[in-house]
Amino acid sequence: MDIRQEIENLRELIRYHNDRYYNQDDPEISDYEYDQLTIKLRKLEEEYPEYKTADSPTQIVGGSAKREAGILVKHNIPMLSLQDVFSKEEVFSFVEKILKERQDSRFVVEKKIDGLSVSLRYEDGRFVQGVTRGDGINYGEDVTENIREIKDVIMELKDPVPYLEIRGEVYMKNEDFEAVNDKLEAEGKKRFANPRNCAAGTLRQLDPQVVRERKLSLFAFNIQDVRGISFENHSESLSWLRNQGFKVIEDYKICKTAEEVWEAIKEIGENRGSLAYGIDGAVVKVDNLADREYFGATSKVPRWAVAYKYPPEEKETVLKDIRLSVGRTGRITPTAIFDPILLCGTTVERATLHNQDRIDELDVRIGDTIIVRKAGEIIPEVVTVVKDKRPEDTVPYKIPFVCPSCGGPAARDENSADIRCSNLNCPAQLTQHILNFVGRNAMDIKGFGEAYVEALIKEGYVKDIADIYYLDRYRDEMIEKGLIGKEKNTDKLLKAIEDSKKNDIDRLITGFGIRNIGRQAAYSLMKHFKSIHRLKEASYEELLEVKDLGDISSRAVIEFFSNPANIKILSRLEQAGVNFEWEEDTLAANNNLSGLTFVITGTLPTMGRSEMEELIKKHGGKVSGSVSKKTSFVVAGENAGSKLVKAEQLGIKVLSEEEILAMINQD
């Protein structure tokens, strides 16, 4: 292959990975692997300048602005990327080059947060607009309504100025990321690969409620433009931002020499493993703003800043054991236990092995010498096995099909590499199972939050979903212990439980937590069988006749009703008076909305969203959470927001509450 073709192939490969990272929020390779591709391309372009082009990935800011994600907004100030450096020598070269022309320059060294860059605009002290980086030069996406849902974003400045534009990084704390993935897994949806992907995907959601639920965070790290006040230094502007109430990059250092800069970079590296969030390097910036103006920028990067990327730290250790644990969704996770090693400044002695496929791929065995590193500087992972040091008596490891928590049967998912406990009443997953049952999409028992569920499980009052309907027997005990609060709160929850007995049976079916049976599939089952008893006796062939059900879902239903523990729970639910039949008035509903898909947004005049959703489904329609080309109508009330905008962009007809009721009631 000639050099020109090699350069073109590299460019295409990097463009592909840019799209996966910036636009799809779903990268296929690590940051380190991506950096190596970029370094290789840059070196080839420097060695063969005759092949350098203006559209090369080395000359262009990474992403693009996506019209489908929101309204495009023109950048007032370009949101450039940073020049990456990978060695002490490169850091010293950068600092010395600055000092050669500006001897009194100082430098600010900050953590480089691994998230999604945004621009926040304020007019007369009030937040007015949030914009993503987009293509970095011309346009970004308007994410104003989603930005408003981030608690770290200040809506009103303490000291108003005519105009302020700041740059910040939207990110996700590690614990919030795990909570989102647990919820997605419980709903049978794809997990996010890392916190950065989750933060980026969440910010581009068209539903601000999703943003609120996922608890995004934001650090402010630069003032892009300001009127009505001036600053001499970057560090001075950060102090002002902090005084306004912003959360700014933590523990930044002000340095005068290359050696001080390097020590600050090393300190961040040593402590990065103990942070509550991910970083992907350290940023070195010129502090004086006039010096920044002097050095200027290229079409892609400022000349007054660089980003140092830490090399992945890898160490050898010996695998002592593989321990199995059960998550809240029943997934069995193997964890490597090894001799303690120091990685990224913290002691590490365990790392997830993910699943049996990963164990087989590594061919890792107890007693092996393994190489471990921290993926993304946060999560320990086993990279490889040193086969030359393998003891003779090792044997391949296989995860047994027995739950390590309850001893019940476990099975491998047909559509993934995960092995799960099939006992829905397994103690390890009971909290999530109960939360699913009482949640908005299932029995909708209002006020039954996670804290109450955990307290009732801990005290032994709830061991399965049927126990919920016998809690009234322990009213006085619960009040005395304060498990739900005082008398008023306890009675309020008990009444909500009692009221839920009258729910339509699709909510009950959803609450069972049968894998791959969500609300829509539950509704189809209810519509077809009209009774829990008939559903319980249904054959595989009969289940396949149901709309929205396939082979995997049908087998999951059979498996659920074949479990004696579940049959016992069903009996107790029926004895408690929970509805097992489809009410006749529901049967009488017409089918006027058959074949149509609706999205509900905003506040309707007389009905809640859940009520409207129920009504649409009862008349044959489907309800989706996001607007797409497949959406038939959007039902909009007041404060409809981005879903309404999306509908208008796609030319989808928007209905009022009155208009959809007319559709339902027409002959």
TrEMBL record:
Q: What InterPro entries does the record point to?
A: BRCT_dom, BRCT_dom_sf, DisA/LigA_HHH, DNA_ligase, DNA_ligase_CS, DNAligase_adenylation, DNAligase_N, NA-bd_OB-fold
- Can you tell me which residues bind NAD(+)? D31, Y32, E33, Y34, D35, S81, L82, E110, R133, E169, K285, K309
E.C. numbers: 6.5.1.2
Q: Which UniProt keywords apply?
A: DNA damage, DNA repair, DNA replication, Ligase, Magnesium, Manganese, Metal-binding, NAD, Zinc
Span of domain BRCT: 588-667
GO biological process: any one?
A: DNA replication
Question: Looking at its record, which EC class is this enzyme?
Answer: ligase
Q: In UniProt terms, what function does this protein have?
A: DNA ligase that catalyzes the formation of phosphodiester linkages between 5'-phosphoryl and 3'-hydroxyl groups in double-stranded DNA using NAD as a coenzyme and as the energy source for the reaction. It is essential for DNA replication and repair of damaged DNA.
Q: Quote the HAMAP family the UniProt record gives.
A: DNA_ligase_A
Query: Can you say what this protein is called?
Result: DNA ligase
Q: Which organism is it from?
A: Herbinix luporum
